[in-house]
Amino acid sequence: MTDYLTKVAYQTVQNSKTYLSLAHKSISSQLLKTFAPPRESQTNPISPKLLMLIRERLDRLIETDWDDAESGIYPTDLLFDHPWYDFLRQYPLLCLDLPRVWSRSQQNKHQEFASDIDTSNYPAYYLQNFHHQTDGYLSDDSANLYDLQVELLFNGSADAMRRRILAPLKRSLNTWPAIPQNQIRILDIACGTGRTLKFLRGMLPKAALFGMDLSPAYLRKANEILSQIPGELPQLSQANAEEIPYRNDYFHAVTSVFLFHELPANPRQNVINECFRVLQPGGSLTLCDSIQASDSPELKTILENFSQMFHEPYYRNYIQDDLVQRLETAGFTDIQIETHFMSKYWTARKPHLSE
């Protein structure tokens, strides 16, 4: 009875997040048409049949999320880990920022940053207003709004998609049965505000967690969030994933969520190569990112609209890219793929020298 009530509570929370996200999109869309109408439509219409398919995929994602928690892969507490207070506090600021987002979108201003932001130490491909975000990933305001923006974008399912890395990661750690959990080292690259690290800590309370990101603002937000969790604080560092600042063969696992679609092709390969370098033989890489064109041809309209509606300059290349080939080029083996809702997952292993 308790499990049933918990499941109903979880489904109720998820449905509420979905309806709130749809309401926000509907209202903001009407405001945009009224006060800043676009010169011409840049997107293709979505049919009722396609909307129904998206809803079915979302329902399956939520069911899988519950099943993984119920089976003990991670605590059910993680299903209810929603920063409601932070979202309520930031939502008015998000709304106030919308006119600037709309203006930047219509004027095709994609590299616009506040004058006090030093952009000199970042790769050119990173200096973008991804999603038309004010200051891109380089301000505290952007970091404060990010998690709310992503939840609204994915109709309240962003965390459920992040948690899909937990099951394959936990399976991959079975390679190290003799190593105590407090000696397991896991690196999350492009850790952003630390949501994935928070879920990793919930599943692996004693593991040594590491996070790295290019944005000092997002690392400050991650430190704020993660410092509220009991236990050892993950070690955070500012670094480019093309040059991971750790020695060879150091980590038992590396994870990354929603990074690769925001990288050009060559850096994408460089990051994979670096992940291979810092993993111990037998270690695993677990990636989460957008679905690709070959996975779901029926969602082609959605994928095409995404790159048009949101400033994602490398997305069209990404959805056609062969990440399996890139993983194999780096040296990975045992590559497995899953898809859930609007995201795709790769798990790969660095072979032992004797293999």
Structure description:
- By secondary structure, the chain is α/β, with parallel strands linked by helices.
- Helices cover 46% and strands 14% of the residues.
- The chain is built from twelve helices and seven strands.
- It has helices at residues 2-35, 48-70, 84-106, 140-153, 158-162, 166-172, 195-203, 216-226, 265-278, 300-309, 315-320, 323-330; strands at 185-189, 208-213, 235-238, 251-257, 279-290, 333-340, 343-349.
- A seven-stranded mixed beta sheet has the order 3-2-1-4-5-7-6, sandwiched between helices.
- A hairpin with a 2-residue loop joins strand 6 and strand 7 (343-349).
- The radius of gyration is 20 Å and the shape is globular.
- The N and C termini lie far apart (49 Å).
- The model has no long low-confidence stretch (mean pLDDT 93).
Percent of residues in helical segments? 40-55%
The radius of gyration computed from the alpha-carbon positions, rounded to a whole number of angstroms, is 20 Å
Q: What percent strand?
A: 5-15%
Number of helices: 12
Broad structural category: alpha/beta
**Integer average pLDDT:** 93
Detail the poorly predicted runs.
none
What is the total tally of β strands?
7
